[in-house]
Amino acid sequence: MSLLKLIGVLLDYPRDELWEHGPELLAACDDPALAPARQRQLRGFVQALLDSDPLDAQARWLGSFDRGRSMSLLLFEHIHGESRDRGQAMVDLVDTYRRNGFELDARELPDYLPLLLEFLAHRPQAEARDWLHHVGHIAGMLAARAAERELPHAVLLEILVEAGDGKVNLALLRQRASEEARDDTREAMDRLWEEEAVRFGSDAPAQDCAPPRRSPARPSHPEVQP
Which of 141, 129, 123, 18 is nearest to 75 (CA)? Predict the structure, then answer.
C-alpha cells in the first residue's frame, strides 16, 4: 500500500473492513519516504485506531469532520464555499479523473480529500507532489485546526503538507487556528442553521454547490484502471 493510499484510508470514515486489514496498514507505516519519527507517529495512530471499538472510532470521526465546515475534507468547501464556481471546479476535477481512467461512484464528490489521495496514489510521483503542493495550504490549515482540537489526525495532514514539499508555515497556521471561533459546537451549528434561510429563484445556490452531509455508510472507492 502506498503512503498516499494509506493516508487516504486513515482520513476516510473508518468502515468496519478497516479492522480486517490491520497488519497491512501497520506495514505501510514503514514507508522509506518518511523520517523514522514520522513512521513511529503514523504507526501509533494506526495502532490506536485498531485498538479502538469501531463504533467509537466512527462516532469520533463524525464529530471531527462532519460538524461545521472548518474541518471539512471537501477541498472546494475551503476554496469556493457555496459559490457557483464550485460546480465548475467539480466538473473540471471529474474530467481530470476520467481522462486518467479513474471513474467515480455516483455518490462520491470528487473533491473529497481521501478520494483525491487514492487517485494520486496511482499517478507518477512528480505529478502527485505537484497536486499536494497546490492543496498544501488547505492541508496545512486542516492540520493546524486538528492540532488545536487535539485530534490525532493532525499527523496525517502534516505528512501531506510535507509530501507537497512542506512550503507551508504550520506554526503560523496553528496560531491562526488558535484564534478562530469554533464552528463545531452545538451553539455554532444552531446559529448557522438559523442564518441560512431558504432561498429561491436567482438567489438560490446551485444544487451541486450545496455542502453535503456525510453518511456513515461510506461507499467503496473505485480503482484506477491501468
Answer: 141
